[in-house]
Write a structure and sequence with these properties.
This protein has 246 residues and is an alpha+beta fold. The protein has helices at residues 46-63, 100-105, 134-139, 145-168, 217-220, 226-245; strands spanning 6-9, 13-17, 23-28, 31-34, 39-42, 70-75, 78-82, 85-86, 89-96, 112-122, 171-182, 188-191, 199-203. Helix 1 (46-63) runs parallel beside helix 6 (226-245).
Length: 246
């Protein structure tokens, strides 16, 4: 019988060791946080929904040549992943102005960007995950210039795939956050999750600025119907994945 020891607990997931040091078990939680965990709550079945969405998308990315940490999903809210050392960087890719980009630049919400914007943030809760310049990133030795180049290239690749994938779900990909880690061979792998927790997703069937939101902004902004929005994303993702298998 496998023995799982808790390795780390974050805001959205718990990481456990397995009998194989190269493999970890991730358990997705129903807990919801926003504004650097200043706002806390719970979303019914969020763990199952986000695990399911992430599992499907990671498999689709792998088919498209983008290596990631996903192995399989032994339980609806669990994912077995390759053990990686996560780089302390949050990589944000933006296609449309929203959130902090609007607050910090004055760009109107919904402004389409001429080309995707790739930003690096310092993954450090106590500092509030600040936006990094290249020089600060290298000053803090958070990644090598080669790793930054590779991550930027991969982030753009993931963006192109996800934009198309979500478009087939009749969803607009506004922006999203990625994390990367190094495996035991020092290979850079896409990690963490891809879900309504980490992506801004707008329903193509709805033009109302509040009603169209299908992501964690519903929780952040007290828009209600959070569970329904997450469930809607899952159903559309499964429908598109099923259609590609036929």
């Amino acid at each position: 019988m496998s023995v799982h020891t808790k390795l780390y607990e974050g805001k959205a997931k718990i990481l456990y060791t397995t009998d194989d040091p190269e493999i970890l078990l991730t358990e997705f939680k129903d807990d919801a946080t926003a504004f650097n965990a200043q706002k806390r709550g719970s979303i019914v079945d969020k763990g199952i929904i986000n695990c399911s969405i992430s599992s499907q998308i990671f498999q689709e990315l792998e088919k498209n040549g983008i290596k990631n940490h996903y192995i399989d999903s032994p339980q609806p809210n669990q994912m077995r992943v390759k053990a990686v050392k996560i780089l302390p960087l949050e990589v944000v890719v933006r296609n449309i102005a929203a959130g902090s980009l609007c607050q910090q630049t004055g760009l109107p919400l919904g402004t389409e960007l001429k080309k995707p914007l790739v930003e690096f943030y310092y993954k450090n809760d106590s500092l509030g995950d600040p936006l990094l310049t290249s020089d600060r990133l290298y000053l803090l030795q958070l990644a090598t210039p080669e790793q930054v180049d590779t991550i930027t290239h991969l982030a753009k690749q993931v963006n192109e795939f996800l934009k198309d994938f979500f478009q087939r779900c009749d969803i607009t990909l506004v922006d999203f956050k990625l994390e990367f880690g190094l495996d035991s061979q020092q290979q850079l792998l896409l990690a963490d999750e891809i879900s309504p927790d980490t992506c801004r997703l707008w329903d193509n069937f709805n033009s109302d600025p509040d009603s169209r939101v299908l992501d964690k902004d519903r929780f952040r902004r007290d828009l209600g119907n959070v569970e329904n929005a997450y469930q809607e994303v899952l159903q559309r993702v499964l429908k598109v994945v099923d259609s590609t298998l036929k």
